[in-house]
Amino acid sequence: MVSPILELNNINKSFGHVHANKNINLTINKGTIHGIIGENGAGKSTLMSIVFGLYQANSGIIKVNGNEIKLRSPKDSIVNGIGMVHQHFMLVENFTVLENIILGFEGETIFGEKLQKAKEDLKKLCETYNFNIDLDSTISDLSVGFRQRVEILKSLYRGAEILILDEPTGVLTPQEVDELFKILRSLKDEGKTIVLITHKLIEIMDLTSEVSVMRQGEMVGHTKTENTNKEKLAEMMVGRSVLLRVDKPEVKRGEVIFKVNDLTVKDDLDVIRVKNVNLEIRSGEILGIAGVTGNGQTELLEALSGIRNVESGNIELFGETISHKDNYLNPRMLKEKGLAHVPEDRQRMGLVTDFKAYENLIFGYHDQEPYSKSSIFNQKEIIQYANKVMKEYDVRPSSPNLLTSNFSGGNQQKIILSRELNENPKVLLVGQPTRGVDIGAIEFIHQRLIDMRNKGAAILVASVELDEVLSLSDRIIVMFDGKIVGEKENKNVTDRELGLLMAGVTE
Amino acid sequence: MSNIVVDKTKVPWWVSNVIVPLVNLSLALLVSGIFIFIAGENPIEAVKLIIFGSFGYIQGFAYTLYYTTNFIFTGLAFAVAFHCRLFNIGGEGQAYIGGLGVFLVAINLSFLPVPIVWLLATLGAILFGAAWAYIPAYLQSKRGSHVVITTIMFNFIASSLMIYLLVDVIRDTNQMAPHTVKLPEEIWLPSFEALSGVLGIKIRYSPLNLTFLLAIASLFFVWFLIWKTRWGYEMRAVGHNTQAAIYAGISPHKNIIIAMCISGGLAGLLGVNEILGVSHKIQAGFPAGYGFTGIAVALMGRNHPIGILPAAFLFGILYQGGSEVTFEMPNITRYMFVAVQGLIILFSGALENLFRPQIESFFVNRLNREVRS
Fold first, then answer.
1. For chains A and B, what is the number of CB pairs under 8 angstroms?
2. For the domain bounded by B58-303, which CATH number is listed?
3. Which residues does residue A459 pair with via DSSP β-bridges, in sequence order?
4. What angle do CA B72, B76, B78 make, to 5 degrees?
5. Would the CB atoms of A15 and B229 count as touching at under 8 Å?
6. What is the pLDDT of residues A385-395, one digit of tens each?
């Protein structure tokens, strides 16, 4: 017997003149995993923030178990049994798991009885759902996957019957995703209701029993997952059919323009993260790096782009050494030589989120004409350029004066990409080109990369999405524990083969 | 704990940048009024005296603008460093050393044509102030010594160094007091009364002088530097996101040093006002706390020249009007006005966000209602 646990009627929400949610109706049945899918900026996160009480709707009714409720703050939601796991975790890093979970719900001034009771309750919860967490470990020692479990545990402990997960797999490795899905399924079996916000179709097909699709602030459809397929959902999401595989002409390889010899790189803690790596990229090809997060890809890309110095070995661009142990060219010099870099963490590195969009569109190129002359900016020229590229790359909203932090992830990525591709680089290093980016934008970004390749650029793409590496690359290398453990032409390679290499299995 | 969530994109600029500071200021003045009442004087009368003292007659107004001049320099000094997320607490010491620069240049080059002396003495102020800021900047960028700590220490070092110089090296040997000889009169900066004398208006003495125009020019300079040039852009990038700056090939080391040196140079300009414009000699302790109050001016002015101008003017009013009050009201001492300043700093700095959410959501809701109806 299905009964609705959460009902939304005619929810409206606008930010300024942006109508983020238009007359949203949604019914979520008890004990189901309900997927909400849509592009970045479709209004999924806004809608769920309303349900969690972070935002107030301009109009509309929210019902839990048939009773209308008012949600003024997350506290109201928690009381009504709604819990949310955000994309970015809200944990105190130097507290233990237990301390984080009881934070705000301590119930006593001097820890004693109640703390013990909480600990026992939590242990029971962990056992029921197979969480496998040590309650006394410190958050900073835990991997991302475990931190997420702590967030889930926190919601459950606070009595959540409905658990909302916002893009939960964006930061996880494939194994961690499997673990998470196991947990979510066991939660469902225990009668909890799960709302999964995602833009990954595979997750919807794998996990959910019902799915709702949002597009540009509107709910465009509800269906049982068994009655639909990936292609249909994708079409509903973007309002047209999408290519899930990229069409690209046969590779035309030119000269080797980028070469890495016996490279070893240390991270900030002096741990060797890249070990004796050799690779070369020819003009006109895309070299993909596959690998589970944290196997040295980050440090490798940073060394290649002139952000991190190398421990031994060297890097050559057009036959000229650009980096060796004692010296390296900084990113600005490399840009002048035609090497562009799209960093894997856009908010930490690719952008200054407190800058206006136009300021980020010239970031790293700001000292070049026509943007500036003798160090003084030519505002008119910059705005003109910003307007042009924002149209060209379909950055929404296309207002150069808006603060960058007000753009969605996908649009921030487009800002970086337009900036780095605009100068027609000869070598392009790209980390996680489409992390947290919606399908429409993924297609767009992939097409741009392929265009660059067809024009003869040498491109390196590091991604944790195996699908992405497979669909973009002409040649694939796999990194494991800082080493290259395999290199394959991208012909008849299966994801199984690569998966084994990624797991460090090398015959 | 406030649970009000305000959608920041909807808050009109004038609410966060005008209404909120004004409310904070009014609160500070309200509490000050209570203090004055407790001290046994009539707050309303005190306000009248402040307004009369700072606006009521031309000499008083000139004093207000003289104080404003100093606050513009030290406020801008703090703001420039702050855009690179550096808390330059050392404005006081940098101004002190800047004054030394003015004096040394002016006394040694007084044979040159007068405008050239002014120009070189101003450069001297900038260079000496910048040099004094350079050392903490270097220590911050290369050694990671926190600039808050080092600049505070450098205030003490500057003070001791200047006392040593004023007692043992550059003292006017005909005097017992620790100050230098006076600069030759022909190189003094024209005062306000001299300038208005040219126009045929007779005004009594005030310390206001040509440096006021330099302060106004500095406001434009800082605005241009921060928002319209590559240097300001790079400083802001380093301040907001150092990682991203490195990615874009912007050197944090270089920008920390540039920001601190410009900051120190601006603080040094206080020496031009005090030495070339007012006292014409170095007196022990002449920066008299302007460097510290400049921090409050910058905070109140939200580190933007357009905000720093009214904030500096407000502190000018308080300084000038406050001295009028202490003169007229025996129960109010000079220290009472130090407390009033403290309250303003408290409400517009530390408690800046006390009522911000309430005020912002009030306006956001009201404006929404208007849009809907």
1. 82
2. 1.10.3470
3. A286, A428
4. 125
5. no
6. 999 999 999 88
Q: What is the pTM of this model?
A: 0.75
> Most B CBs within 10 Å: which of A52, A267, A352, A373, as the mutation test of the B interface?
A352
Report the C-alpha gap between A207 and A138 in whole angstroms: 31
Cβ contact B230–A372 (<8 Å): yes
Number of helices (H) and strands (E), helices first, in chain B? 17, 0
The shortest C-alpha distance from A367 to chain B (Å) reads: 7
What contacts B247, CB < 8 A, 6 or more positions away? Answer: A305, A307, A331, A341, A343, A349, A350, A364
Going by C-beta distance under 8 Å and a sequence separation of 6 or more, which residues neighbour residue B65? B192, B208, B212, B316
DSSP A40: T
Rounded to whole angstroms, the Cα distance separating B74 from A344 reads 41
Which one of A58, A330, A349 would you mutate to disrupt binding with B, by most B Cβ within 10 Å of its Cβ?
A: A349
% of chain B residues with pLDDT over 70:
96
User: Cβ of A399 under 8 Å from any chain B Cβ?
Assistant: no
pLDDT digits (tens, 9 = 90+) for B173-207: 888 888 999 999 999 999 998 888 888 888 889 99
Cβ atoms of A403 and A354 closer than 8 Å: yes
Nearest CA in chain B to A355: B237
Question: Quick count: other Cβ atoms within 10 Å of Cβ A89?
Answer: 16
Answer whether B237 sits within 8 Å of A352, measured CB to CB. yes
Greatest Cα pair distance, chain A, in angstroms, is 73
Domains defined for chain A, CATH in brackets? 4-238 (3.40.50.300), 243-338+426-507 (3.40.50.300), 346-422 (no CATH)
One-letter amino acid for residue B79 of the chain: A
Q: Rounded to a whole number, what is the distance in angstroms from the first to the last CA of chain A?
A: 51
Quote the DSSP letter at residue A355: S
The chain A residue lying nearest B225, using CA atoms, is A376
Q: What is the ipTM of this complex?
A: 0.83
How far is the CA of B43 from the CAs of B24, B30, B32, B38, B323, in angstroms? 18, 9, 8, 10, 15
Segments in chain A below pLDDT 50: 243
- Taking the CA of residue A398 and the nearest CA in chain B, the distance in Å comes to 16
Q: Which residues of B touch A366 (CB under 8 A)?
A: 230, 233-234, 248
pLDDT at B202: 85
Angle at B150 between CA B146 and CA B155, to 5 degrees: 150
pLDDT of B2: 40
Contacts of B233 in chain A (CB under 8 A): 359, 366, 377
Give the span between the Cα atoms of A42 and B251, in whole angstroms: 38
**What's the pLDDT tens digit per position in A197-253?**
887 778 888 899 999 998 878 898 899 999 988 778 877 876 655 545 667 888 899
Question: What pLDDT is stored for residue A240 in this prediction?
Answer: 56
CB contact under 8 A, B248 and A331: yes
Q: What is the pLDDT of residue A245?
A: 63
Which residues of chain A neighbour B250 with C-beta distances below 8 Å? 332, 364
Report the run of H or E that residue A263 belongs to, with start and end. strand A256-266
- Closest by CA to A258, choosing from A340, A299, A302, A318, is A318
What chain A residue is nearest to B83 in terms of C-alpha separation? A354
**pLDDT (0 to 100) of residue B8:** 64
Q: What residue type is assigned to position A48 of the chain? A: M
For residue A278, give every residue at least 6 positions away whose Cβ sits within 8 Å of its Cβ, in sequence order, or none.
Answer: A260, A261, A262, A263, A484
Domain boundaries, chain B: 58-303
- Between positions 69 and 88 of A, the ones with CB within 8 A of B are 72-73, 75
| A401 touches B at CB < 8 Å | no
Asked if pLDDT for residue B316 goes beyond 70, the answer is yes
Interface touch B247/A377, C-beta < 8 Å? no
Nearest CA in chain A to B365: A58
